[in-house]
Amino acid sequence: MKMVVTIVSYVLALPYLIFGLNYFLNFMEQPVMEGDAATFMSILVSSGFLAVEKAMEVILAALLFVGIKRPLVAVLLMPLSVGIVLTELLVLSSPPVGILLVVLNAVLLYVYRDKYMAMVK
Predict the structure, then answer these.
(1) Nearest alpha carbon to residue 50 among 73, 65, 30, 70
(2) Which of 7, 51, 82, 87 is deepest in the core (most CB within 10 A)?
């Protein structure tokens, strides 16, 4: 079971790390956006919100890779994962690749569910 959790953690962390670092280092070409998607992304970039989000993605992905505080990282990544899915579905009209992130994150949350019971009591 520990091996499965490690693999799920790595698979979940990899896209966050790659796309988070890409925001700062620009090593992959960005897709051209038009219309509402371009407006939405320009607002996120100009407000600084996207930079904060990408920094969080990189930090949390690194923590997942190292294995530090995985239950906490899983909780902190879930809002980011849901935000990615909603952005893909509602704004970008692209195939929801973020659903994979939500599913992997849900697996981690399920595995660590005993750690969260104190919060709901």
Answers:
(1) 30
(2) 87
